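Re: that chain you flagged

S.,

Sorry for the slow reply, it's been a week of failed gels. I finally had a moment to sit down with the sequence you sent. For the record, here it is as I used it:
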Amino acid sequence: MKILSVVGARPNFVKIGPLLQEMGERPQIERVLVHTGQHYDPRMSDGFFEALAIPAPDVNLGVGSGSHAWQTAEVMKRLEPV
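Prediction finished late last night. Pasting the structure tokens below so you have them in one place:
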């Protein structure tokens, strides 16, 4: 089974750590981590990954900053091929 998890905002990073750890202990689960890239400054998102021991994302959508509507639309467009 493949489980794709999408993270982008601080609350997402806090919640995904334990879930990824649990999924990693189950060989029947293929986990895929997608980062929206809405934090355009790598120091912000990289800090979350390091502090919370979250593995590097498999995909970074690189959305960057913009209005909520624009970011949502970009995430949807860029996530489609994943």
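What I noticed first: Strands lie at 2-7, 30-35, 59-60.

Talk soon,
D.
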